[in-house]
What we know:
Mean pLDDT: 95
Number of strands: 9
Distance between the termini: 25 Å
Helix content: 40-55%
Strand order of the largest sheet: 1-2-3-5-4
Number of helices: 13
Strand content: 5-15%
Low-confidence stretches: none
Amino acid sequence: MTAEREQHLQAFLKMAGWADAQRIVLAGDASNRRYDRLRHPDLGKAVLMDAPPEKGEDTRPFINIATHLRQAGLSAPEIFARDTTNGFLIIEDLGDDLFARVLEKNPGPELQLYLAATDALYTAQQAEPPANLLPYGPKEMADTALLAADWYLTYAAENPPDIREEFHLRIADHLHSALIGPPVLVQRDYHAENLLWLPDRDGDRRVGLLDFQDAMMGDAAYDLASLLKDARRDVDPSVQHQCIEHFIGVSQSDKQKFGARYAVCSAQRNLRIIGVFTRLCVRDGKGHYPDMLPRVWRNLMDDLTHPDLAEFGQWVRQVLPAPTPDIVARIKAANA
């Protein structure tokens, strides 16, 4: 943090009444945001979000979506103080019990937690969404899936073929065919590292929500695929199946059509993540992301077993190399 930004932060903390708080580094993420835990002798604890505007961050979408989710009866953090000009927020501290950490210690309640997250997701989708959210429809999804060709293939293959145009046409065709439902709010990073278990709360509020500021309007299957086909942890196949069946039941969806939507949403998302994780390593110097590529690839291969994606799956396997240890090492070396 620059000296000037530290001055802005100190002024913000003083204005908000948190100048006497102890600051403890809490976390960073794939973006340029960072988080500190604040401990104040009188006010208790909170979280400081540092989102530098000069690095492309904007706190206003977070405020907008957090307000919306709280009004829907969900556990997004309450916002205690804000400085949108300089990119600082003081928000409610929902604790440390991320789904991933809880289940790492005790995998027993995996189904309970994931069914609760499925219900909270459905509740979020049923609320009237905020105005002016951008679309995340077939065109936008096809565009972002291209990251697999632009980044992963570029560094994974020794002589990468030019598949960009054909890749876009193929994935766009499947997206246009499958995604026929009305758009809903999609949080786009709905997974175990962004969900907190709050068992002392009731109903949907037992699921604490984080990292939703990039929400858009897209298909109802997208966030469910994000939850169950997690890039960071393996979700038990039985849990995946039961959560999909539960979502189909509560949403009264057509099982066959929803299955196709789920498969293509998950395939698109995993293709995008393969590209994003490569870019985070090569461009941004975050060298641990390629280690997760084999799991993302396994998720993608599972997606491509759906009958509607059989031909596309055969083509993907021909043009994209699997992330073997040698390829993971090559991607990491590209940042060296």
